[in-house]
Design goal:
Ribosomal Protein S5, domain 2, four-stranded mixed β-sheet, about 20% strand, globular
């Protein structure tokens, strides 16, 4: 069986309600352009991600498109993300249908902010 080279396997996704709640309750916030992110350390050797969108964001085609774009931007840049975090991405209130290249740039910026935040917290110990 062929393995997907750039896929997003189940072990790289946040799937359990408890994990979602932990990220939203204990997570730190970041924002870059049209993306908000909440994250917490997960103790694993890889990052896990999810996308969360409120129904007030728009109708289902708008929400689904936003989710697809956020997942694709993450998938293309997941190698930039630091290991050992759970991260949930949310579209910002001024989403305004950004292009995939804008989302990729925002993902790379978030990855850099995450690396600096993790390095800073390790330096405090």
């Amino acid at each position: 069986m062929m393995q997907k080279r750039f896929g997003l396997p189940a072990e790289e996704r946040i799937r359990k309600r408890d994990d979602f709640e932990r990220v939203f309750q204990q997570g730190r916030r970041l924002r870059s352009g049209p993306i908000f992110a909440r994250w917490v350390p997960n103790g694993l050797d890889h990052p896990r991600m999810a996308v969360a969108i409120r129904t007030a964001f728009g109708n289902s085609p708008q929400r689904n498109r936003a989710k697809r774009l956020l997942r694709e931007a993450y998938r293309l840049n997941k190698h930039e993300m630091p290991a050992g975090i759970d991260i949930i991405f949310l579209p910002s209130y001024d989403w305004n249908a950004p292009h995939l290249t804008q989302l990729e740039e925002a993902m790379r910026h978030i990855a850099g902010m995450l690396r600096r935040a993790i390095a800073g917290s390790e330096g405090e110990k």
